Amino acid sequence: MCSRSVPMQKFIRGVAAVAALSIAGAVHAQSASTPFDGPSVGVQGGWEQTNVRNPSTDLGIAPINRHHDTGVAGGFLGYDKQVAQNIVIGAQAELNLPIDGGFSRNGVTIDPKRSIDLSARAGYLVTPATLLYVRGGYANARVGTRIVNGTTTLSGSEGRDGWLVGGGVEQMVTDKISTRLEYRYSDFSKGDGKFDRHQVLLGVAYRF
Predict the structure, then answer these.
(1) DSSP β-bridge partners for residue 187
(2) Is the pTM of this model over 0.90?
(3) 20 and 101 belong to one structural domain
(4) Domain that holds residue 28
(5) Are residues 1 and 39 in the same domain?
Protein backbone atom coordinates (compact mmCIF):
# COMPACT_ATOMS: atom_id res chain seq x y z
CA MET A 1 0.00 0.00 0.00
CA CYS A 2 2.87 2.23 0.75
CA SER A 3 4.47 1.48 -2.62
CA ARG A 4 1.23 2.50 -4.39
CA SER A 5 0.92 5.77 -2.44
CA VAL A 6 4.33 7.01 -3.59
CA PRO A 7 3.41 7.04 -7.33
CA MET A 8 0.06 8.59 -6.42
CA GLN A 9 1.79 11.37 -4.49
CA LYS A 10 4.11 12.00 -7.44
CA PHE A 11 1.10 12.08 -9.78
CA ILE A 12 -0.71 14.59 -7.56
CA ARG A 13 2.40 16.73 -7.34
CA GLY A 14 2.78 16.61 -11.10
CA VAL A 15 -0.83 17.67 -11.63
CA ALA A 16 -0.38 20.52 -9.12
CA ALA A 17 2.80 21.66 -10.90
CA VAL A 18 1.09 21.63 -14.30
CA ALA A 19 -1.87 23.54 -12.85
CA ALA A 20 0.45 26.13 -11.30
CA LEU A 21 2.33 26.58 -14.57
CA SER A 22 -0.95 26.91 -16.46
CA ILE A 23 -2.21 29.59 -14.05
CA ALA A 24 1.11 31.46 -14.23
CA GLY A 25 1.04 31.29 -18.02
CA ALA A 26 -2.51 32.60 -18.12
CA VAL A 27 -1.62 35.50 -15.81
CA HIS A 28 1.45 36.32 -17.92
CA ALA A 29 -0.56 36.17 -21.14
CA GLN A 30 -3.21 38.47 -19.66
CA SER A 31 -0.51 40.92 -18.46
CA ALA A 32 1.26 40.83 -21.82
CA SER A 33 -2.01 41.45 -23.67
CA THR A 34 -2.72 44.60 -21.62
CA PRO A 35 0.66 46.34 -21.26
CA PHE A 36 -0.93 49.81 -20.94
CA ASP A 37 -2.65 48.98 -17.67
CA GLY A 38 -1.31 50.08 -14.30
CA PRO A 39 1.21 52.54 -12.83
CA SER A 40 4.34 53.81 -14.56
CA VAL A 41 7.28 56.11 -13.92
CA GLY A 42 9.53 57.71 -16.51
CA VAL A 43 11.82 60.44 -17.75
CA GLN A 44 11.50 62.69 -20.79
CA GLY A 45 13.31 65.42 -22.64
CA GLY A 46 13.31 67.33 -25.88
CA TRP A 47 12.68 70.74 -27.44
CA GLU A 48 10.75 73.67 -26.01
CA GLN A 49 9.79 77.04 -27.48
CA THR A 50 8.37 79.86 -25.34
CA ASN A 51 6.49 82.71 -27.10
CA VAL A 52 5.70 86.02 -25.40
CA ARG A 53 4.10 89.26 -26.60
CA ASN A 54 3.59 91.97 -23.98
CA PRO A 55 2.60 89.43 -21.30
CA SER A 56 0.74 90.53 -18.19
CA THR A 57 2.83 89.83 -15.07
CA ASP A 58 2.72 90.62 -11.36
CA LEU A 59 4.92 93.62 -12.23
CA GLY A 60 2.51 94.86 -14.89
CA ILE A 61 2.75 94.59 -18.67
CA ALA A 62 6.22 93.41 -19.74
CA PRO A 63 7.04 95.15 -23.06
CA ILE A 64 8.70 92.25 -24.88
CA ASN A 65 7.87 90.40 -28.10
CA ARG A 66 10.03 87.34 -28.64
CA HIS A 67 10.22 83.55 -28.92
CA HIS A 68 12.95 81.45 -27.33
CA ASP A 69 14.06 77.88 -28.10
CA THR A 70 15.75 75.62 -25.58
CA GLY A 71 16.00 72.04 -24.37
CA VAL A 72 13.83 70.62 -21.61
CA ALA A 73 14.08 67.59 -19.30
CA GLY A 74 11.86 66.13 -16.62
CA GLY A 75 10.11 63.15 -15.08
CA PHE A 76 6.57 61.83 -14.74
CA LEU A 77 4.30 59.47 -12.83
CA GLY A 78 1.35 57.94 -14.61
CA TYR A 79 -1.47 55.45 -14.37
CA ASP A 80 -3.31 53.87 -17.29
CA LYS A 81 -6.36 51.65 -17.56
CA GLN A 82 -7.43 49.64 -20.58
CA VAL A 83 -11.20 50.10 -20.46
CA ALA A 84 -12.07 48.32 -23.72
CA GLN A 85 -10.38 46.10 -26.28
CA ASN A 86 -8.53 48.98 -27.94
CA ILE A 87 -9.22 51.93 -25.62
CA VAL A 88 -6.86 53.19 -22.89
CA ILE A 89 -7.41 56.11 -20.54
CA GLY A 90 -4.91 57.47 -18.04
CA ALA A 91 -3.63 60.31 -15.86
CA GLN A 92 -0.17 61.80 -15.44
CA ALA A 93 1.70 64.19 -13.14
CA GLU A 94 5.06 65.60 -14.21
CA LEU A 95 7.80 68.10 -13.50
CA ASN A 96 9.82 69.65 -16.34
CA LEU A 97 12.82 71.99 -16.25
CA PRO A 98 14.09 74.10 -19.18
CA ILE A 99 17.82 73.75 -19.78
CA ASP A 100 18.34 77.44 -20.70
CA GLY A 101 14.96 79.10 -20.35
CA GLY A 102 15.81 82.76 -19.75
CA PHE A 103 15.73 85.38 -22.53
CA SER A 104 15.80 89.20 -22.75
CA ARG A 105 14.90 92.11 -25.01
CA ASN A 106 14.58 95.88 -24.52
CA GLY A 107 15.40 95.72 -20.82
CA VAL A 108 12.93 92.91 -20.08
CA THR A 109 14.02 89.44 -18.99
CA ILE A 110 11.66 86.45 -18.89
CA ASP A 111 13.00 83.37 -17.09
CA PRO A 112 10.81 80.22 -17.08
CA LYS A 113 12.13 78.07 -14.22
CA ARG A 114 9.97 74.95 -14.06
CA SER A 115 6.55 73.64 -14.96
CA ILE A 116 4.18 71.20 -13.28
CA ASP A 117 1.61 69.52 -15.52
CA LEU A 118 -1.40 67.43 -14.47
CA SER A 119 -3.15 65.83 -17.40
CA ALA A 120 -5.42 63.06 -18.63
CA ARG A 121 -5.07 61.12 -21.84
CA ALA A 122 -7.20 58.84 -24.01
CA GLY A 123 -5.66 56.47 -26.52
CA TYR A 124 -6.36 53.84 -29.16
CA LEU A 125 -4.31 50.65 -29.49
CA VAL A 126 -3.42 50.32 -33.17
CA THR A 127 -1.54 47.15 -32.16
CA PRO A 128 -1.39 45.48 -28.71
CA ALA A 129 1.96 47.25 -28.15
CA THR A 130 1.36 50.61 -29.91
CA LEU A 131 -0.83 53.37 -28.45
CA LEU A 132 -1.91 56.54 -30.24
CA TYR A 133 -3.25 59.12 -27.79
CA VAL A 134 -4.39 62.67 -27.13
CA ARG A 135 -3.70 64.57 -23.91
CA GLY A 136 -5.18 67.56 -22.10
CA GLY A 137 -5.09 69.15 -18.68
CA TYR A 138 -3.70 71.76 -16.29
CA ALA A 139 -0.27 73.39 -16.47
CA ASN A 140 1.55 75.67 -14.04
CA ALA A 141 4.81 77.48 -14.89
CA ARG A 142 7.08 79.25 -12.42
CA VAL A 143 8.41 82.32 -14.22
CA GLY A 144 10.79 85.06 -13.16
CA THR A 145 10.42 88.57 -14.63
CA ARG A 146 12.84 91.50 -14.56
CA ILE A 147 12.07 94.92 -16.03
CA VAL A 148 14.71 97.66 -16.25
CA ASN A 149 13.44 101.15 -17.03
CA GLY A 150 16.17 103.78 -16.74
CA THR A 151 17.39 103.68 -13.15
CA THR A 152 14.41 101.62 -11.97
CA THR A 153 14.59 97.83 -11.80
CA LEU A 154 11.59 95.66 -10.98
CA SER A 155 11.92 91.92 -10.46
CA GLY A 156 9.67 89.13 -9.26
CA SER A 157 8.65 85.51 -9.63
CA GLU A 158 5.15 84.18 -10.15
CA GLY A 159 3.25 80.99 -10.84
CA ARG A 160 1.35 81.16 -14.11
CA ASP A 161 -1.69 78.87 -14.41
CA GLY A 162 -2.60 77.54 -17.81
CA TRP A 163 -3.84 74.61 -19.85
CA LEU A 164 -2.27 72.12 -22.22
CA VAL A 165 -3.28 69.92 -25.15
CA GLY A 166 -1.24 67.46 -27.15
CA GLY A 167 -0.90 64.01 -28.60
CA GLY A 168 1.60 61.32 -29.36
CA VAL A 169 2.47 57.66 -29.80
CA GLU A 170 3.79 55.20 -27.20
CA GLN A 171 5.42 51.88 -28.07
CA MET A 172 6.21 48.93 -25.79
CA VAL A 173 9.79 47.75 -26.41
CA THR A 174 9.77 45.06 -23.67
CA ASP A 175 7.01 43.79 -21.38
CA LYS A 176 7.95 46.54 -18.86
CA ILE A 177 9.56 49.39 -20.83
CA SER A 178 7.96 51.74 -23.34
CA THR A 179 9.09 54.75 -25.35
CA ARG A 180 6.97 57.69 -26.45
CA LEU A 181 7.07 60.72 -28.72
CA GLU A 182 4.68 63.57 -27.95
CA TYR A 183 3.85 67.09 -29.12
CA ARG A 184 2.33 69.49 -26.61
CA TYR A 185 0.96 73.05 -26.62
CA SER A 186 0.53 75.00 -23.35
CA ASP A 187 -1.03 78.45 -22.87
CA PHE A 188 -0.19 80.62 -19.84
CA SER A 189 -1.57 83.89 -21.21
CA LYS A 190 -3.32 86.48 -19.03
CA GLY A 191 -5.49 89.31 -20.32
CA ASP A 192 -4.45 90.65 -23.73
CA GLY A 193 -0.85 89.46 -23.49
CA LYS A 194 0.55 86.29 -25.00
CA PHE A 195 2.56 83.64 -23.14
CA ASP A 196 2.50 80.15 -24.63
CA ARG A 197 4.76 77.17 -25.18
CA HIS A 198 5.38 74.41 -27.72
CA GLN A 199 7.15 71.17 -26.80
CA VAL A 200 8.28 67.99 -28.55
CA LEU A 201 9.14 65.37 -25.91
CA LEU A 202 10.77 61.94 -26.15
CA GLY A 203 10.15 59.77 -23.09
CA VAL A 204 10.96 56.37 -21.61
CA ALA A 205 8.64 54.74 -19.07
CA TYR A 206 8.90 51.72 -16.78
CA ARG A 207 5.61 49.94 -16.10
CA PHE A 208 4.96 48.09 -12.87
Answers:
(1) 163, 196
(2) no
(3) no
(4) 1-33
(5) no
